[in-house]
Amino acid sequence: MGRQSGCVKPKLRKGLWSPEEDEKLFNHITRFGIGCWSTVPKLAGLQRCGKSCRLRWINYLRPDLKRGMFSQQEEDLIISLHEARGNRWAQIAAQLPGRTDNEIKNFWNSCLKKKLMKKGIDPNTHKPVIDKEARERENSSMAVAASSAAMSSTIFYEGGLNLTEGSREQFENKPVFDPLLVYEFQGNADPIGYNSSFSAQYLRPYSQSYQEVNSHLGFNSMPNLTSFDHQNVAETDFSGNSTSQMSSLLFSEAKESSSNSSIMNNMMENAAFSWGTDKFESVFQCQNGIKYEEMKPSPWPEGQLQNHNSEYFSSYPLTSLSEDLARAPMDVFQ
DNA sequence: AACTGCCCCAACCGCATTGGG
DNA sequence: GCCCAATGCGGTTGGGGCAGT
């Protein structure tokens, strides 16, 4: 077997995270930023492994996460990206701001696969199932032919005779079914036709994000993961910037900011989080009380993207690879 | 009400990759 | 080049919720 998981040490907690643990982790990250995950549990006073902390932050605590159901546009984008890239969930997630690879993976496995199958599309090949069935029919008829030919040959050989020309041809010339060859990887530069997928509005505005986090991470009870802003997402205007432009802009700025962790540190300085509705805002403020987005000119048209917090959180060195991949043209993956 | 089966999804596990010494 | 720890990623699991009986 491979290397032991980072979570095998005795006395480490596993399973669902308690509100107290979330609070500790969130406080720690907002105060000190993301450094070495392996040291986070100790410094934050958690009985968890660093790996578990990292996952919790990425998949749940990050303030830039977009919760709630997937919009139709997101669905379509996921399907198209999956067709082009397969189960590269991290790469797919890089094209969907605010969504995690885990979330997309779960959504794919629980919903999209079934939807595609209902439509008669093979979720693995993204081709109509009818083709597959036809191939299977052909394959089975080939198998019958092959076995009958084999039987014939046995009989012939037992009788000391050669195969007849016809039966030999049938036996030898039938294509051998190879599922690996049947699978055709169907990428192209813009396989989706989604070059007009996202607008900057796709990201939640600051105020909404703030309210949601406040109301859902109050930690009197565990946060509600399913009742976030589906409506907002569904009503999003997708007619704006192209996906690639959007991603490029987002992630180039992300990289900029991630290369300068002092930005995050500034933002987070003195931002201890009490999990009360009145204190959470401190996370998004500098020590002088000015919201971060007020300090940095926005590259976006006014009102389109107010939530710099999200960007800076997401830019926070989480997945540099994803960032690079997000900037790369689609055909890199083919 | 109690039981069962199914579905969803948060979290874990194992492996690959990366980077520092 | 090798070793090892940290990190990232994709597959899998298991528990909670819910519908059906």
TrEMBL record:
Residues 9-61, 62-116 form the HTH myb-type domain. Residues 9-61, 62-112 form the Myb-like domain. PROSITE patterns: HTH_MYB (PS51294), MYB_LIKE (PS50090). InterPro entries: Homeodomain-like_sf, Myb_dom, Plant_SW-associated_TFs, SANT/Myb. One of its GO terms (cellular component) is nucleus. Its main location: nucleus. SUPFAM superfamilies: Homeodomain-like. Keywords: DNA-binding, Nucleus, Repeat, Transcription, Transcription regulation. It is found in: Nucleus. GO terms for molecular function: DNA binding. It comes from the Eukaryota. This is Myb domain protein 86.
